[in-house]
Specification:
Elements (H helix, E strand, L loop, with lengths): L7 E6 L4 H4 L5 E7 L5 H8 L3 E4 L3 E2 L5 H19 L3 E3 L1 E3 L5 H7 L8 E3 L4 H11 L5 E6 L2 E6 L6 E5 L2 H10 L3 E2 L5 H9 L3 E4 L2 E4 L2 E2 L11
Parallel strand pairs: 3-5, 4-6, 6-7, 8-14
Antiparallel strand pairs: 1-2, 1-3, 8-9, 9-10, 11-13, 12-13
Length: 219
């Protein structure tokens, strides 16, 4: 397990519609969020249907002290996306990887602003118009793990039946030092763009589903 950073804070509302959010009783105010699993479930149970992150997710930074906080915010965006909670967040990409980095993250709720790459407006438009739920998901079956990836326009499906893959996903889910994951497993995940490196941390990109929103063959 990795140590959690100080709490992040979100502003939250009971409805995703901008006009409805202005009505009495719709604002939930500022909520502290402790970076750990099931936080999205807790926020859902509180009635959160729209959230706003407290700061930009800046993947261009080389400061190791900020990497844990960046991953914590990415975890929250990923897990709220899985819950179909809309999120206002701002993203700055790494200049060295920006050309493909936005596609790697395109299964997440589209950010409010996107900076750090040439043609950012076009990339953000593509992200917004092509986004849908279950674009990159994983599920635990009886004795196997299956990952379904549609970020690239077609369906790419991966199935693993060895327990060490499930153990690696559990370790990577909230972000973990890359040396703590078997090198061959991490290499496979990296080759398929299923993890994102943020400094020394490796973070698991797919979100988990326990029930398909459509028939399984259509997802």
């Amino acid at each position: 397990m990795t140590a959690s950073a100080p709490n992040l804070t979100i502003r939250a509302w009971r409805d995703l519609d901008p006009q409805a959010r202005g009505l009495p009783g719709m604002s939930l105010g500022s909520l502290p969020v402790t970076p750990q699993p099931q936080q999205a479930d807790r926020l859902w149970d509180l009635g959160v249907r729209h959230a706003e992150l407290d700061t930009t997710v800046d993947l261009s930074t080389d400061d190791p002290a900020t990497h844990r906080r960046l991953v914590d915010r990415l975890c929250l965006v990923r897990d709220l996306t899985a819950r179909a909670v809309s999120v206002d967040w701002d993203l700055r990409l790494s200049p060295q990887e920006a050309a493909h980095q936005w596609k790697v993250l395109s299964h997440l709720q589209p950010p409010r602003t996107l900076t750090g790459l040439e043609g950012a407006d076009e990339a953000l438009h593509a992200w917004r118009t092509r986004h849908y739920l279950c674009k990159l998901v994983w599920r635990q079956g009886p004795g196997f793990i299956q990952i379904r990836d549609r970020r690239w326009g077609d369906l790419r499906r991966f199935t693993a039946d060895e327990p060490r893959y499930r153990e690696a996903i559990t370790h990577l889910d909230q972000g973990a030092h890359h040396a703590g994951v078997p090198a061959d497993v991490l290499e496979e995940f990296t080759a398929e763009h299923l993890v994102l490196r943020v400094g020394e941390l490796a973070w698991w990109l797919p979100y988990r589903v326990s029930r398909w929103l459509q028939e399984a063959m259509a997802v």
